[in-house]
Design a protein that fits this description.
The complex is a heterotrimer. Chain A is an alpha/beta fold. Helices cover about 25% and strands about 15% of the residues of chain A. The longest helix of chain A has 16 residues, at about 340-355. The relative contact order of chain A is 0.11. Chain B is an alpha/beta fold. Chain C contains 7 helices and 4 strands. A 4-stranded mixed sheet of chain C has the order 2-1-3-4, with helices on one face. Chain C folds into 2 domains: about 5-75, no CATH class; about 90-170, Glutaredoxin, CATH 3.40.30.10. Classes of the chains: A alpha/beta, B alpha/beta, C alpha+beta. The interface of A and B includes residues 46, 85 and 126 of A. The structure holds flavin mononucleotide, iron/sulfur cluster and FE2/S2 (inorganic) cluster (FES). Flavin mononucleotide binds near residues 58 and 209 of chain B.
C-alpha cells in the first residue's frame, strides 16, 4: 500500500493495481471505456485521463491515463485538472455516434450515456456527416448495430483475448475500424452473450431480449441462480407483463464474476413457452381425457395419494425435493436418476468430505497454473468453468511478467511477452474438445484408459497411491509429463466429473488431487455434475440408495414425480413398464413432457423464475434463488403444492433434518428481513406504468403483491439496493446506470460485494488424511462400437432446449464416427445410421475419435442415450431421410471434420 | 570532407556488388568488431553521440544499452525502412544505391547487441530497394558475412531477412512495426515495456532507422573522434538532408550536421525556382512545425530547431512557396494523417477526421470563426502524451504552427474559401 | 480453435504450387506462423491480382490462422486488395510534395482519359486508380507507380505515353 494525493485528498492505495481501479475503489468518479476489471488495461480510449505531477514543485503536471498508471508513493494526481481533455475525448468519440438513444436498447443502462454526462459534454459542435457501417447477422443471440460503435476494443478483447473466440475481430482501420466477423454468420463462442454486457453502448445487444424489449427500470428483477447446469452462476433475470424478458450476469466474485455462458443467458425462454403447463389437469384413468383441475382440487388429489412413492429431481430445488420426501416419507423417496448416476454424485460428496483436496471455486480455477482434465467436456457440461480454465493458462504469462516487474493489469504487454507460453493444461478425452486450442497436450482415450492414466499420475506423484498396469509407452510418457507439471505447479487443478459416466475416472481425479496434497497445501479439485441441484439431491439421499431402478422395481402403485421427465433418465422400455404399472401417477412440472402425458394428475409448477429455493452447485455451494415474478394463480411452486408450510419453514426443516444442510437457513437474511420496515422491492424506483399496465383488466391499482415465500415484494416500494444491498438484484448508482455500476457495491473494484452473500459451501473440506481409491476395472461392454457421450451446450439440457433461441443453435440427435469406421460401414454422405436399440440417426465424421468407438449425442431429440448399452452395433440405415431438425452447421467442434450431407445450412 | 554514408553512391550507376563494395573498404567494420567486446561497441556508439535518424533523434548507443544481458533466448535487430513520412526520401537513396552499407551496419550492430537475427522492414513500394537488398543479402551469405560463423568468428551466427510491408504509415512507429512484422494489425504497443526489453515476440529487440545503422560501419571502423569531427562547429556526424518543393534542384545529400537551412536550400538545392518565393518550410517531414524564412540561418541540429519551436525530424525540408495555399497544404497533410491513423486511440482516430472536415469546409468557404477555435483546441487535444503514440501529436504540428503563422489566411478562407487558383 | 463444419458458404480455393513454394520460403523466416499471414496474402495477391474470399480462406487453412484474424490484417493494410482490381494498378501519390506539384491535375487527367476516379477500374479491367501516400520520391514529384514500376516527374503528356505503352502491351 502507498499513499497518494488525488485533488488534495490523501488516499491509501494498492500500488499493484492501476490508478483507475484505485480511485474508483475510493468512490471517485472517473470515466473509462477500454479498461475492464477482468481484462485489464490497454490504454486505447484515453478517457480515464488524469494529471500526474512530478513533484511538489510541479504545477503543470502531465496528462496520463489512470488505467496505465501504477500509483507512486507520495505522488500527486488530479482528476479535476484533466476534465477538459476527457470532455474532448468524449466529444470526439461522439462525432459519429448516432443520436438514437430513444430507440436504442442500451438507453438507460448505457455506459456511454453515463460517461458522456459525467464528462460534461452535452452540445454537439461537429457538423459533418457521421460514418455509417453495415451490420452483420451474428446468429440468434447477438444483435449488431455498428453505427453505435465507439471503438473501445472491449468486444475483441473480451471475445478473442479473454474468451478465446476466433471468429470475430477488428477490421479496417482509422475511423473506419469495424468489429465483426469476416463473413456474416452465428458467433461460435459459447460465451458470446457477454458481448452485450461488455460493450459500453448498444453495438452488441441481446437479440432474444430485443424481440420483447423493455427498459432496464421497467424490468422486475430478483437475484437468481442459473438453473441450466451445475455451476450455479448468479444471474439477474428480468420480467415484465408476466413474461421473462432477459437474463443478465449478477456479479459474484467466487462464482461467475462478470461472465456467464450463452446457455444461461439465452436459455430461459422456455419460461414463456407454449409448452408450459399453466393449469393442473386430472383424469381417472390414463385412457380418459384430462380435465381441468382447480388448484384446490389438484392439491387435494395430490395429498390424497396414500402410499405413493416420490421421485425427486436433480433440477428441482432442495426444498421441493425435501417437501416431496416429507410428503411420501424418506423410505418412499427415490432420487430421479439412475443408480449409477446417484452413485457418482454420492461418490463426489464423499471425495469432497474425506479427501485432502480443495474444492475449486471458479476463482481458484482461474488462479491455477497446471490443469488436467479427465474425460469431461467442460465447455459443454459446465461452460463457465471452461471459461475459467482459459484464464488459468494465462498464469504462466503473468508469472513471466511479474518476474520482469510488469504489473498484472498490463494486459497487452503480458500477452505480448507470453506469446504462446501457457500454463500447462492437459486434456484426456474420447474426442477433441473446445479447450484443445489452449491445451499443452490432448490425449484421445476412452474413459477407462483415461482413468488408468489418472491413477498412474497419482502414483507418479505419490508412490503410496495405488498403481495400475498395462499402460502403453505413450501413456507412460504422458503420465510422467503430467505428473511433473502438476508437481511443479503452485496451484494445480484436477477436473473431472460425471460426463463420461465413469466412477473410476472420478476416483482417479481424487487420487491425483490427494497425491498432490501436502499438509496445508491442497490441490484444487473440480468435479462436474450435470444439473443445477444434482448434489443437493444427493445430499438428501445420504442414507438411501433409492434410485430410479429401485423405484421401477417397487411394489407401490402410486407415484409422485417431481420436475422430472423419466424418459430422459432411463431406458424407454423401463419407463413404459413402470408407468403401465402405476395406477396413480402425479407429475409436478412446469413443462410438458412424455412422463407428464402419461400422468393422471398434472400439477402446474413454477420455473426457477417464478419460485424461490436453494440449489447446491458442483462445489456443494448452496445458493438461494428468489422468484422474479409471480405466476398466474394456477401455477404454484412445487414446494407449495407439496407442503403446507411456507418456504422458509421447509428450508428450516430441511436444514435440521438433512445432514450437512444446516447452513442453508443462512443463505437469506431471514424471512423477517426488512429495510426501514419494508420488504426488499423487486422493482426499481423508476418502474413505470404500474397503474396503467393492468388498466385493460381493472382500473383500480391492485394491492401490492406480497411474496409469501420470502423477503422481497413484487413492488417498487422499499429501500433500493444503493443503500442496502443485502438482497442485491439490479446494480444502479447515481450517475452509473449501466452494469458498470457494480463496482459501487464491491469492496474494491472487481472484488467481493460488500453486502450480498455469495452462497455457502455445505461441505467445508477439512480432510487431511491421504487415502486412495483402488482402481476397479469396469466390466467392458460387448459390442461393435464402444459408446461414449457427446454433450451439447445448446440442446443437451432438457429445459433450455425448449427455448427458441437455443433451438436455433441446436440440432437433432446424431452420432460421431471416425473416417475409417464410416468407410467400414459403407456410409455415404447422405446416409443415416441405424443404432441398435434406437432408431436411425444422422452421423458426422470426426477425425479425433478412435476407431471402434462411437460418440452419441446426449439429450438431443431422436436419440435416447439411456437406451444404449456400453457398446452397440451400427448399420447403414436403409431408406433414410434426415430429420428436419438436423443441423450439422450448429455442431461446433475443434477437430477436423467432414460434414455429412443432409445437413441444413 | 568524408562522406561515410554516400561515398559509394553515384546516381546513375548500379550499386556496388559485394566485391566492389569490399574493395572500397566495405565490411572492414565487421572484421574489426569481431575482435571487440560487444559492450565496448555499444559504448563506442554511445560516445560517438550518434542520434537516431528515424525522427526522434535519441542517442543510438544509449538505446542499445537498455537491452538486458543475454539469457540464451533470441534477440533481434529490426531495421526501420518504412519511410512513409511525407517529404522523406533518404532511406530510399541509401538502400537503392548502397545496400551493402546497411547490411554491414546490421552485422556490426547485431554483434554489439548479441542478436542472432535481423529483419529489415522495408516499405513495400520500394521495389528497387527490395531487389537490390535481396541481392546484397544473398551475396553476403555467399561471402561468409551472414549465416554461421560470420566473418569466420566462431559462434557469431547471424541471419538477415527482408520483410516488405503492405502500406500504412503507422508501421514506421517502432512498436506498430513490430506488430506488423508479427503479422498482426499494426497498432502501436504501450511503452513501457520498451522493445529493448520486450519487443519482437516478446523478446529483446532494437529498432533503428536505416540511416542510423548506415552510420555504424564508419564509426566502428574509424573511431569516435573521426565521427565527431565530421560535423560542423559543435555538431557531430553527417546526415542525409534534402529539399523538396519548388526549388531549382530538389534532392538529398549527405551534409555535415550543423549546416544552416539556408546553406542547404541555396547551396545544395539551388534556391527557389524562378517566380516563386519561400513562404515557409517544414524542416523535417510532414509531422514537424512550419518554420519561416527568418529561421533560415538556424543550424540544422535537433536542439537548435527545437528552440525555434519545431523539430528537425528527418531533416528533409519541404518548401512552401508563395503560390501554394498554406491551408491547402495543411489540409493535405491532415488528410494523410487522418487516413493513416491506426484507429487505436480516440484523439487521433476521431479528432483528425474532424480537423479534416473543418479544413475541407475552409477550402469551400463554408467554415466559421468558431471552427478556427476548434482547430486550435484540437492541436492541444492531440498533443504529446494525450495519444497512444506520436502520430497524432506529429499531425498536430503543422496545424498548430500553421495557425500561428497563417492565421490571416485561415480567416480569409472562412469568408471566401481558397483563393489560390 | 478453428471449428468449421459448415459455417461458411465460401470454400477455399486450392493454392498453386508457386504460391505454396513462396509461402513455405517465407515460413523459414519467422518463428511463428502468424507472421507469415500477411506475407502469404501478398504472395497470393501477386499471382491473383487481389485477395478473394476463397484465397483468404485458402491461406487461412494452409497456415492455420483463423480467417477472421487474416481479415483483420488484410483490411488494415492499404496494399492488400480485398476487391478485384484491374490488370494494372496505378498508385498515384497524393501527399504533400506531389500535391504542391500538381497531382490533383493528374487525377483529373486520368478521369478524362481513362474515365476513372480514385478507387475505380476501367471497363476493360486494364487499370485501377488508387491514391497512395508519399512514395518517397518527393524530389522527383509528382510520382506514381504502376505495378512494381515507379514513374517520376510526371506531366500529363508523360502519363499519356506511359498509359499507351501499357495499352500496347495489352
Ligand atoms: C507515426 C510514426 C511514424 C514513423 N515512421 C518512421 C519511419 O518511417 N522510419 C523510421 O525510421 N522511423 C519512423 N518513426 C520513428 C520510429 O518510431 C523510431 O523512433 C525509429 O525507427 C527509431 O530509430 P532511430 O533511433 O534509429 O531513429 C516513426 C514514428 C512515428 C510515431
Ligand atoms: S495516435 Fe493513436 S490512433 Fe493514432 S496512430 Fe497512434 S495509436 Fe493509432
Ligand atoms: S480506460 Fe484508460 S485509456 Fe481507456
Amino acid at each position: 500500500m502507498v499513499k497518494i494525493t488525488v485533488d488534495g485528498k490523501v488516499l491509501e492505495v494498492d500500488e499493484n493495481n492501476n490508478l483507475l481501479e484505485e480511485v474508483l475503489s475510493h468512490g471517485e468518479d472517473l470515466p473509462y471505456f477500454c479498461w475492464h476489471p477482468s481484462m485489464g488495461s490497454v490504454g486505447s480510449c484515453r478517457q480515464c485521463a488524469v494529471i500526474e505531477y512530478a513533484d511538489d514543485e510541479d504545477t503543470r503536471g502531465r496528462l496520463n491515463m489512470a488505467c496505465m498508471t501504477s500509483p507512486r508513493d507520495g505522488a500527486r494526481y488530479s482528476i479535476e485538472k484533466a476534465a477538459q481533455f476527457r470532455a474532448q475525448a468524449i466529444e470526439s468519440i461522439m462525432i459519429n455516434h448516432p443520436h438514437d438513444c430513444p430507440v436504442c436498447e442500451e438507453g438507460g443502462e448505457c455506459h456511454l450515456q453515463d460517461m458522456t454526462v459525467m464528462s460534461g459534454h452535452n452540445y454537439r459542435r461537429y457538423d459533418g456527416k457521421k460514418k455509417t457501417h453495415t451490420n452483420q447477422y451474428l446468429g440468434p443471440f447477438i444483435g449488431h448495430e455498428m453505427n453505435r460503435c465507439i471503438t473501445c476494443y472491449r468486444c475483441v478483447r473480451y471475445y478473442k483475448d479473454y474468451a478465446g473466440g476466433t471468429d470475430f475481430g477488428p477490421q479496417a482501420s482509422h475511423d473506419n475500424t469495424y468489429f465483426g466477423r469476416w463473413q456474416e454468420g452465428p458467433l461460435e463462442s459459447e460465451f458470446s452473450g457477454n458481448l452485450a454486457e461488455v460493450c459500453p453502448t448498444g453495438v452488441f445487444t441481446d437479440k432474444p431480449f430485443s424481440k420483447h424489449y423493455v427498459r432496464k427500470w421497467d424490468l422486475q428483477t430478483a437475484p437468481s441462480i442459473c438453473a441450466s447446469c451445475s455451476v450455479g452462476c448468479n444471474t439477474n433475470p428480468g420480467e415484465r407483463y408476466g413474461t421473462l424478458r432477459r437474463v443478465v450476469n449478477r456479479f459474484n466474485d467466487e462464482v461467475n464474476g462478470y461472465f456467464i455462458c450463452d446457455r444461461g443467458r439465452f436459455g430461459t425462454g422456455y419460461v414463456n413457452s407454449d409448452e408450459r403447463i399453466i393449469v393442473s389437469m386430472t383424469r381417472d384413468s390414463r385412457d380418459d381425457n384430462p380435465v381441468l383441475a382447480s388448484p384446490e382440487e389438484a392439491r387435494t388429489s395430490l395429498h390424497s395419494m396414500m402410499g405413493a412413492i416420490g421421485i425427486g429431481s436433480p433440477r428441482a430445488s432442495l426444498e421441493a425435493n425435501f417437501a416431496l420426501r416429507e410428503l411420501v416419507g424418506p423410505d418412499n423417496f427415490y432420487a430421479g436418476v439412475s443408480s449409477a448416476e446417484l452413485g457418482m454424485y454420492k461418490q463426489i460428496l464423499d471425495i469432497y468430505r474425506t479427501k485432502p483436496v480443495k474444492v475449486a471455486r471458479i476463482k481458484d480455477i482461474e488462479a491455477s497454473d497446471a490443469v488436467v482434465i479427465l474425460g469431461e467436456d467442460v465447455t459443454n457440461t459446465a461452460a463457465r468453468l471452461a471459461l475459467a480454465m482459459r484464464q488459468s493458462v494465462k498464469n504462466e504469462g503473468r508469472k513471466m511478467a511479474r518476474d520482469m516487474k510488469f504489473p498484472d493489469w498490463h494486459d497487452a504487454a503480458i500477452r505480448q511477452l507470453a506469446m504462446d507460453c501457457k500454463s500447462p493444461l492437459f486434456i484426456l478425452s474420447p474426442y477433441a474438445t473446445r479447450l484443445d486450442d489452449v491445451a499443452a497436450q490432448v490425449h484421445i482415450a476412452s474413459a477407462e484408459e483415461s482413468a488408468k492414466i489418472g491413477y498412474a499420475i497419482a502414483t507418479a506423484i505419490d508412490g503410496n497411491a495405488p498403481g495400475v498396469t498395462g499402460l502403453s509407452k505413450e501413456s507412460q510418457a504422458l503420465v510422467k509429463t503430467i505428473a511433473e507439471a502438476l508437481k511443479g505447479a503452485e496451484q494445480p487443478l484436477i477436473v473431472s466429473g460425471t460426463g463420461s459416466m465413469s466412477p473410476a475416472l472420478i476416483n482417479a481425479a481424487a487420487n491425483i488431487a490427494t497425491a498432490l496434497s501436502d499438509g496445508e497445501k491442497k490441490a484444487n479439485l473440480a468435479l462436474v455434475v450435470p444439473e443445477a441441484n444434482s448434489l443437493g439431491l444427493a445430499m438428501l439421499m445420504e442414507e438411501s440408495d433409492r434410485a430410479l431402478e429401485q423405484a421401477f422395481a417397487c411394489e407401490e402403485t402410486h407415484a409422485i414425480v417431481l420436475e422430472n421427465d423419466l424418459y430422459r433418465r432411463a431406458p424407454s422400455a423401463d419407463v413404459d413398464a413402470f408407468i403401465n404399472k402405476m395406477e396413480g401417477l402425479a407429475v409436478l412440472d412446469s413443462m410438458k413432457h412424455k412422463t407428464g402425458e402419461a400422468a393422471n394428475l398434472v400439477l402446474a409448477s413454477g420455473t426457477f423464475a417464478e419460485t424461490s429455493g436453494t440449489f447446491v452447485n458442483y462445489e456443494t455451494r448452496a445458493q438461494h434463488f428468489y422468484s422474479v415474478f409471480k405466476p398466474v394463480d394456477s401455477i404454484q411452486s412445487s414446494v407449495k403444492w407439496l407442503s403446507d408450510k411456507p418456504l422458509a419453514e421447509v428450508t428450516a426443516d430441511c436444514a435440521k433434518e438433512i445432514e450437512g444442510c444446516a447452513a442453508i437457513v443462512g443463505l437469506t437474511p431471514g424471512a423477517d428481513f426488512t429495510v426501514a420496515g419494508m420488504r426488499v422491492p423487486r422493482q426499481q424506483h423508476r418502474y413505470s406504468g404500474r397503474t396503467a399496465m393492468r388498466a385493460d383488466v381493472d382500473v383500480h391499482e391492485p394491492k401490492q403483491e406480497q411474496d409469501e415465500d420470502g423477503i422481497m415484494s413484487y413492488s417498487m416500494e422499499g429501500v433500493p439496493a444503493t443503500r442496502d444491498s443485502t438482497v442485491f438484484n439490479t446494480a444502479w448508482s447515481g450517475g452509473w446506470n449501466s452494469n458498470q455500476s457494480v463496482f459501487k457495491f464491491q469492496s474494491h473494484t472487481g472484488g467481493p460485494l460488500k453486502q450480498a452473500g455469495h452462497g455457502i459451501c455445505l461441505i467445508e473440506n477439512i480432510a487431511s488424511e491421504k487415502t486412495y481409491n483402488e482402481f476397479e476395472k469396469a466390466e467392458s461392454a460387448k459390442g461393435d462400437y464402444q459408446v461414449f457421450p457427446l454433450y451439447h451446450l445448446f440442446g443437451s439440457d432438457e429445459l433450455t432446449a425448449k427455448t427458441p433461441a437455443i433451438q436455433e443453435k441446436a440440432t437433432s440427435g446424431y452420432i460421431a464416427l471416425n473416417e475409417a469406421d464410416v468407410a467400414k460401414l459403407g456410409l455415404q454422405a447422405s446416409d443415416g445410421v441405424a443404432v441398435e436399440n434406437n432408431g436411425s440417426v444422422p452421423y458426422i465424421v470426426r477425425s479425433s475419435i478412435q476407431p471402434g468407438t462411437v460418440g452419441v449425442s446426449v439429450g438431443l431429440e431422436g436419440l435416447n442415450f439411456r437406451n444404449l448399452p456400453g457398446a452397440v452395433s451400427l448399420q447403414k440405415a436403409e431408406g433414410w431421410t434426415s430429420p428436419g431438425s438436423w443441423n450439422a452447421a450448429n455442431i461446433i467442434i475443434s477437430d477436423k471434420s467432414v460434414a455429412a450431407e443432409g445437413e441444413t445450412a | 570532407m568524408d562522406k561515410p554514408l554516400t561515398k559509394n553512391i553515384e546516381i546513375g550507376r548500379a550499386p556496388f556488388d559485394f566485391k566492389q563494395y569490399e574493395a572500397a573498404g566495405g565490411y572492414d567494420s565487421v572484421r574489426k568488431v569481431i575482435k571487440m567486446e560487444p559492450g565496448d561497441v555499444v559504448n563506442m556508439v554511445k560516445d560517438a553521440g550518434l542520434g537516431g535518424r528515424g525522427g526522434a533523434g535519441f542517442n543510438t548507443g544509449l538505446k542499445w544499452s537498455f537491452v538486458p544481458p543475454p539469457d540464451g533466448g533470441p534477440r533481434y535487430l529490426v531495421i526501420n525502412g518504412d519511410e512513409m513520412e511525407p517529404g522523406t526520401f533518404k532511406d530510399r537513396l541509401l538502400i537503392e544505391h548502397d545496400p551493402h552499407l546497411l547490411i554491414e551496419g546490421m552485422i556490426t550492430t547485431c554483434y554489439a547487441l548479441q542478436a542472432q537475427t535481423g529483419y529489415i522492414f522495408l516499405r513495400g513500394e520500394y521495389t528497387i530497394c527490395e531487389e537490390r537488398l535481396l541481392q546484397a543479402i544473398s551475396e553476403a551469405y555467399d561471402n561468409g558475412m551472414l549465416g554461421k560463423n560470420v566473418a569466420g568468428k566462431k559462434g557469431f551466427d547471424l541471419d538477415i531477412y527482408l520483410h516488405t510491408s503492405a502500406g500504412r504509415y503507422i508501421c514506421g512507429e517502432e512498436t506498430a512495426l513490430l506488430n506488423a512484422l508479427e503479422g498482426k494489425r499494426a497498432n502501436p504497443r504501450a511503452k513501457p515495456p520498451f522493445p529493448q526489453v520486450s519487443g519482437l515476440w516478446g523478446r529483446p529487440t532494437v529498432v533503428n532507422n536505416v540511416e542510423t545503422i548506415c552510420n555504424i560501419p564508419g564509426i566502428v571502423a574509424n573511431g569516435v573522434e573521426w565521427y565527431q569531427n565530421l560535423g560542423t562547429g559543435d555538431f557531430v556526424g553527417t546526415r542525409i538532408s534534402g529539399v523538396s518543393g519548388r526549388v531549382i534542384n530538389p534532392g538529398c545529400w549527405e551534409v555535415p550536421v550543423g549546416i544552416t537551412f539556408r546553406e542547404l536550400l541555396e547551396d545544395y538545392a539551388g534556391g527557389m525556382q524562378d517566380g516563386y518565393e519561400l513562404k515557409a518550410f517544414l524542416p523535417g517531414g510532414g509531422s514537424t512545425d512550419f518554420l519561416m524564412p527568418e529561421h533560415l540561418d538556424l543550424p540544422m541540429d535537433p536542439g537548435a530547431v527545437q528552440k525555434a519551436g519545431s523539430r528537425l525530424g528527418t531533416s528533409l525540408i519541404m518548401v512552401l512557396d508563395d503560390k501554394t495555399c498554406p491551408v491547402g497544404c495543411i489540409r493535405n497533410l491532415i488528410k494523410f494523417f487522418a487516413h493513416e491513423s491506426c484507429g487505436w486511440c480516440t484523439p487521433c482516430r476521431d479528432g483528425l477526421p474532424w480537423v479534416e472536415h473543418i479544413l475541407n469546409k475552409m477550402e469551400e468557404g463554408t467554415g466559421s470563426l468558431k471552427d478556427i477555435d476548434i482547430l486550435d483546441e484540437m492541436t492541444r487535444y492531440m498533443g504529446p502524451g494525450n495519444t497512444f503514440c506520436a502520430l497524432a501529436p506529429g499531425a498536430a504540428e503543422p496545424l498548430q504552427s500553421g495557425l500561428k503563422y497563417f492565421m490571416d489566411e485561415f480567416k480569409a478562407h472562412v469568408e471566401h474559401g481558397c483563393s489560390y487558383n | 480453435m478453428n471449428n468449421l463444419i459448415a459455417s461458411t458458404a465460401v470454400k477455399a480455393r486450392e493454392l498453386t504450387p508457386e504460391e505454396i513454394k513462396e509461402i513455405e520460403h517465407e515460413k523459414t523466416h519467422y518463428p511463428y506462423a502468424q507472421a507469415v499471414g500477411l506475407e502469404a496474402l501478398k504472395i497470393v495477391q501477386k499471382y491473383q491480382g487481389w485477395v478473394s474470399d476463397e484465397s483468404l480462406l485458402a491461406v487461412s487453412e494452409y497456415l492455420d490462422i483463423p480467417p477472421d484474424e487474416l481479415e483483420g490484417v488484410a483490411t488494415f493494410f492499404n496494399m492488400i486488395f480485398r476487391r478485384p482490381v484491374g490488370k494494372n494498378v496505378i498508385l498515384l501519390c497524393d501527399s504533400v510534395a506531389c500535391w504542391m506539384l500538381g497531382c490533383d491535375s493528374l487525377n483529373e487527367h486520368f478521369k478524362k482519359t481513362l474515365g476513372i476516379d480514385y478507387g475505380e477500374t476501367t471497363a476493360d479491367d486494364m487499370f485501377t486508380l488508387i491514391p497512395v501516400p508519399c512514395l518517397g520520391a518527393c524530389d522527383r514529384a509528382p510520382v506514381m507507380m504502376i505495378g512494381r514500376e515507379t514513374y517520376y516527374n510526371l506531366t500529363t503528356e508523360k502519363i499519356d505515353e506511359i498509359i499507351a505503352e501499357y495499352k500496347a502491351k495489352g
